[in-house]
Amino acid sequence: MSTITVDFDALDHLSAIYHNLADTTTQSSPNARSYIRDNIVVPNSGSLGYVMSDIIGYAQQVTDAVSQCETDAEKALRGGADAVDECRRHYENSDQNVITLFDGKYTSADVNTAKSTPSTPVTGCLPPAVAETTFADVFSSMGMVGNVISPSFWLGEGADIILDFILGEGEHNPFDAIPGAIAGDWEAVSRAGNGLGHLADYFSALASESTNTWSDTASEWEGGAADTAATSFGKMSQSFSDIAEELRKLSATYQSIAIGIYNLAASLASGLQALADWGILFLAAAAAVTLPVPIVGQLLGLGGAGYAGYELIQAARALISTLNATWSLVIGFTGLCATSLGRLQVSPDTSTVYIPTFSEGCLVDNRSNRPVRLLSTFPIGSPGDQLLRESLRALRAEAPPETRRMIDSIFRDERSVRDLMNSSWMSKRLQFSAEQTTELKQQIADVRARAEGSDGGALPSRTEPRSGR
Description:
This protein is mainly alpha-helical. The chain has 18 helices and five strands.
């Protein structure tokens, strides 16, 4: 009686879809790799203010982490397709008593279409990124050209006098401090945030397409590795969804600091306007005091100039205070980035995406009576495999009929050793007497002593006596 039913066209279609999805990472147009390069990178060039300098390192880590996710996605999708192909090859060489083939809903034409049709639902999620916040107008309103603000833009010919006065009062030069804080390509940050949002859509689409593809195939493949494949592909899809969630958070984080800098620039422009107005008033009042012909006025005189000068200094201080608030933007950005990076970054030997692993390599070939692999850790014929087989045969000799049938089915790869471990008979069998437990501990101690001695810890010889139960 066969234990596996499968439609080869369904497996070929499944493999073709996963290969197509893998192509979206590096080969299709657009693809995730080139999209990251062209849309996610925040350039580390030119004159950068201290805010941009502080976040640029995190932006590079984000780029590296996203690139790793893209690489791992391709490995996982190719791995899943290759596992399906390997199962198909195994079925072609298996005994027909084990495999039942049938013609399901897929045809060879469906397979050819799947192989030749790009996965547009996925690549359609990758339009060119655009800056959601533009800075040209707000920077222009500050008189900021490149990374410089000209005092004469605001104060005309009196710029030097005002700067001397501000610096003479021990205050910072706001015209230098502002670009020193916020200089940088902030539209690139906003654009990268937009691109991260599209990449989140891309990974969500990978999850959906993977899930839907398996759901469409599940009824065409039953038994054997099919259940393991379902679990593996489910875990891979969940990995894609988890990555998408973190990318959405990063997208929001990038947009948040871009908007924060934009609002800061608008506040600074307003502050510069106030400083310039008080500066102009100070210049006008000082000039009037020194006129050769006295002019009668209630506020005119040195007191009026002093009043304007005081407010000028207050305006300069207010600008510097506003700049100090930028640290909260930096702290918020780096903190949120660090949280998402902690979930995306992995050690070099770990994948951010679950790589499907399943096979029919342990299936019994009735024509050759080839033994099955009982536990994945122990290759057939290894000392561990031999010991397990001897143990199962010894248990079978004492087991009731129902458990004997279970052990027989384990050797035929129809049940697993773990099923036996969960059986009620085995549970009772494992309730050792105090004497047996003591004996077992002594055997373990003997093996440990051998492992630490000169004989390399070999298992007891088959000729060594073994006490009865």
